[in-house]
Amino acid sequence: MLLVIIDYFCVLIAVLADLVSGLRKAKSRGEKCTSSGLRRSVDKIGRYYLALFSMSIIDVLILASLHCLMESGIDLMPCFPYMTTFGAISLTLIEVKSICERSDEKGDLRMTVTRLLELLTRLNLR
Q1: What pTM was computed for the model?
Q2: H or E element, residue 121
Q3: Is the CB of residue 46 less than 8 Å from the CB of residue 79?
Q4: What is the mean pLDDT of the chain?
């Protein structure tokens, strides 16, 4: 149980570190902190915890199955929350990668839309 709590806590710390990193990068570029940007972070935490909770449910089912097998004399593998820990490690690594990326490598959606509109405008004029 302690490991599951640590998994959830590490994911929260990783998301908060990404948020702080994003706020610092935005401040250094002179951008304003908007509610939509903060809302995306809250949505991300919700999605991450929903995924972790789903993996925890799978772990509970696996551990219950292993417990039933151990009662019948079959000992297959140790009781460990494999899915939750794997999911927490994966989500934490995603956030670490996000922190390490430069903002110009992330592909700004506004810039992409602007370039697409410029391209469409040029195609219609010629």
Answers
A1: 0.71
A2: helix 109-125
A3: no
A4: 83
